[in-house]
Amino acid sequence: MLAGASVLGCAMMVASLGMAEAQTKPEGEMRWALYVTLAPAWLDPGESVVGVLTPFWVLYALHDALVKPMPGQRYAASLAESWTASEDQRVYSFTLRPGLKFHNGDPFTAEDVKFSFMRAKGALLHQKVKEVVVVDPTHVEFVLHDPWPDFMTFYGTFASGAGWIVPKSYVEKVGGDEFKRHPVGLGPYKFVSNKPGIELVMEAFEGYWRKVPSVKRLVFKSIPESTTRLAMLKRDEVDVAYLLDGSLAEEVKRDPKLKLAFSGGIGTFYLDFFDMWDPKSPWADQRVRRAASLAIDRHAISEAETLGASPPAGNVVPKAFEYALPMDPDPYDPVQAKKLLAEAGYPNGFDAGDLYPWPPYFSTGEAIIGYLGAIGIRSRLRTMERAAFYAALGTKKLKGLCMCVNAVYGNASSRLSETVPSDGAFAYGGYPDVDDLYRRQALETDAGKREAMLQQIQRTLRERTRFAPIYDYIWASGVGPRVEDAALMKIDPYPWSAPLEEVRLKRP
């Protein structure tokens, strides 16, 4: 009798599973309005630049990584079932998930892991890794020159795209340019079409190892104009409209059929003083930089741009990051700011040249120009398209001021890596004592000693007003009536819908 009951129970379970599978069959189409032009390079993990976060909204759809941030997990085992570090912290060994296949049917093996790492951008990772050893098809080892406590921070988070895997045989067959035109990955969605500057279309990959996606078809539309994004949301032409500023967010709040959602928290807005390293520049005087920081009403900008959702920041390293030193933001004090300018020899202010706002946050740049102008620091807004801005920033061709954004993920060390060391990709200068301290902390395996060094660096940057942090950016998006779950902030912090196999439309 018990055996019969067991068989009956198994039959009911099988029937139940069959119903569940039927219910989770991908259905429908979900559309996003993006605020920047989607670059073809974002379709290739190997093109991801350290410190640039935007490619990940595509990588989470088309591709997968050995280890990546997921809901509730900073380092979630994905294509790697597990990993270990040797006692001397020189060898990281990964056991790969067996039996997986790329969208084109190619098997996933350790050779793909090695190939993907070797073609990935990011000088730091390649400097630190001595070799990648393919042990067998499901085991791979990364051998470092020296112990490097940040290996997993750079390899297994948004800090780089080196851990995201592409199919070796396919890329070698078609070449890098063709791969960007017709990418093949291991992610929950497979490529259908891309019209550069217009839209990217993807369809559910039902063989995805983690779960079958709920939505059949995803469409990402490039809509740079925010009012157009909102209009399309209201007309049901898109289901999610990213990045709506304060006035547009208020419109969403007033519309009963729409929902306002906030996300982000990775990027910190800050003023960078490109000319501070020139002793002839007014910005070389710490009092002038401090005056600029005191001139900014952070709360007012947050209210105007993000309905007050973005908390003012006193550090470019978010408080939630490992080794962060919590610091209060500078107060809004234009009287003290003018006093400092006078003490520095500029009682009537000065012409500060151009201010470059990080695209597309031009209205924030305009607000900062207004606050600086109120104390006599006169500057002109200079807007650029995002690709041109990155190129000019990285080649150190910009002059004047930048309303910049630091969105490098990980910990305090990775966060500062691009802007603080003199050889950082976006650093226009540096301090020898800070450079030395930064180099030493990067090799320190004792967590307590390392924390002390990193916090000393952050303290020194604050004392010298190396940056003028503004706020940790949390922005509003509009969500349409067909959406059950837009998967915003499932990964916290993270700005966009992810993981994309979790997005859901309402069922009829």
CATH class assignment of the largest domain: Alpha Beta
Query: Main sheet?
Result: 10 strands, mixed
The second-level CATH architecture of the largest domain is: 3-Layer(aba) Sandwich
Count of domains:
2
What is the fold named in CATH at topology level of the largest domain? D-Maltodextrin-Binding Protein, domain 2
- Share of residues in strands: 15-25%
Report on this model:
It is a single chain. The protein is of the alpha+beta class and 508 residues long. The chain has 2 domains: 25-233 and 480-505, D-Maltodextrin-Binding Protein, domain 2 (3-Layer(aba) Sandwich); 267-474, Roll (Dipeptide-binding Protein, domain 3). Helices cover 32% and strands 24% of the residues. The strands form 4 sheets. A 10-stranded mixed sheet has the order 8-9-10-1-11-16-12-15-13-14, with helices on both faces. Helix 10 packs antiparallel against helix 12 and helix 16 packs antiparallel against helix 17. The two termini are 42 Å apart.
Descriptive key words:
508 residues; alpha+beta; D-Maltodextrin-Binding Protein, domain 2; Dipeptide-binding Protein, domain 3; 2 domains; ten-stranded mixed β-sheet; four-stranded antiparallel β-sheet; 18 strands; globular
Concise account of the structure shown:
The chain is α+β, with helices and mostly antiparallel strands and 508 residues long. Helix content is 32%, strand content 24%. Helix 10 runs antiparallel to helix 12 and helix 16 (432-441) packs antiparallel against helix 17.
